[in-house]
Predict the structure.
Amino acid sequence: MAPNPVNPALGRRLFLSLAGAGTGAAALTACGGPSTGGGTSNTAADLDFKGVKPAAAIDFWSNHPGKSQDVEKAMIAKFQEKHPDIKVNLVTAGANYEEIAQKFQTAQAAKSGLPALVVLSDVWWFRYYLNDSIIPLDSLISQLDVPLDDFRTSLVNDYKYDGKQWALPYGRSTPLFYYNKDHFKAAGLPDRAPATWQEFAEWAPKLKAASGAQYAFMHPALAGYAGWTLQNNLWGEGGAWSNGWEITCDSAESVAALQAVQDSVYKDSWAGVSSKDSADDFAAGLASATVSSTGSLIGILKSASFNVGVGFLPGGSKAKTEVCPTGGAGLGIPSGVTREEQLAAAMFLQFVTEPESTAAFSAATGYMPSRTSADMTAVLAKTPQIKTAMDQLAVTRVQDNARAFLPGADQEMAKAAAKMLTQKGDVKETMTELKATLEGIYKNDVKPKLKA
């Protein structure tokens, strides 16, 4: 397998330098959301936990990624067997990453009701770093002797910035290509994912004719997914949401890639757009294939009444590999809670990222095991499809800055995708409008916070 084309940690450290010469990460202040001071600052003195006694109770905020509430409860029960003096309260803080982020922002603004441990999605964690809303974990990692070198490099490095570790991987995922093996067999197609979207476009009419399904392919629901999964389509055609801080969503390559996506819905009529969850639509037999998170794997396997196949994301005419974005969430510790709560949270964080725990979480959800020493033998024997997701990690690509670092950009991308895919809006015009919006976010919410 080819290595990642960009080192994620290096990308995190250098991305601001792409905005122009002389800018520096150390000069950053908040770039979006409320201005939040916390009860604890990120100074070395405040992050010294020697002599601190862990709190007797902490709140853990989760949106239960991958329908993980049961396995989260089980991990808490095991943790409390080991640490009976620390009670962990599992709080459902939202139905998705966006909802939990909004609740966390509200609690920060109110400076009350903060959790000690919180799920941080790929498009929110860096905003919290900029707002000084989370603490670096390095002193806790050292005190608790957490072996960072045993974490999967591409997953743990996504949370490194300015020489510090700001979160640890939790529900980490990539998109996967899911397909109905029975439909593919009926259509006389190979039992594999297509190598490119052009190849799938050739297969689609055969699938529609032979399968009886409403669609050959179901595009993911746009809210929360469009900005993420469409990177695959863009990269395959040599496009992108951005190149460094240069917004490129309106480039000829990007427009061509998104025009092909729109054509699959309207011109060629072999694809639909999910209104809620393409994984559920696929499992119900409405479509012969879809793209969804690895975190949907176990749910699909349980719900589907047919043989499920999984494969790497298809490439395009310009790139056939390294077209899969990383994604998912990590766990971070807020700066606005006491050191006692922070220490207790770190102890629980250490437990849920131990090899046995991460293997159990992967088995229950399909998310990536974050530890290289996790024994996945039993998991893979029961669910061999997880190995495909693990193998695809070797050819993932760091997400475009425009999606991962511009506050609110993911929602703007979703709006643009909806205009193109549910309203048949002109692709070039829509991307020109999106470019102006994204450049405005950078100019108004990011660039002013950079010091020359």
